[in-house]
Sequence to fold (172 residues):
Amino acid sequence: MHNVVTATTNPAKIQAILAAFELIYGEGSCHIDAISVDSGVPEQPNGNEETRAGARNRVENARAMRPDADFWVAIEAGIDEGSTFSWVVIENAERRGEARSATLPLPEVILEKVREGEALGPVMSHYTGIDKIGRKEGAIGVFTKGTLTRSSVYHQAVVLALSPFHNAIYGQ
Fold:
């Protein structure tokens, strides 16, 4: 059984991480230990590099808090060039895997509020009336009519970030 520390307590992120690990390693193969850690970046990261840095920082902080885990996983959502996206960073004792998620272009009315310094989640909650939307379907669920959700998009990125851990060619 793999002990997987998630550098988040967000249910949408935890669900994606668990589903991806079980897809790759088998159902019931993982124990999730969800912890809250600091990202070292603003609540609403702006740009590719700041968002990736937030995910990397979360993994580093999770490792410091739970050094005996098998895997440490972080998902950091950000805004880049008018779209929302995330970085997934996964580490174990030997390597790191990283993947960027799909992106969702955001409406200008939402982007204006984000540019003014508000985080996407609260802005989306205001416009949709969905409390704590970032812990649920997110903007992705709203704007894709539920076809995709925050968790489903994260899931893909977690599967991609896991590639170096179960494909021997990455170690060559």
About this structure: The helical segments are 11-25, 48-65, 108-115, 120-128, 138-143, 150-161, 163-166. The radius of gyration is 16 Å. The longest strand covers residues 71-80.
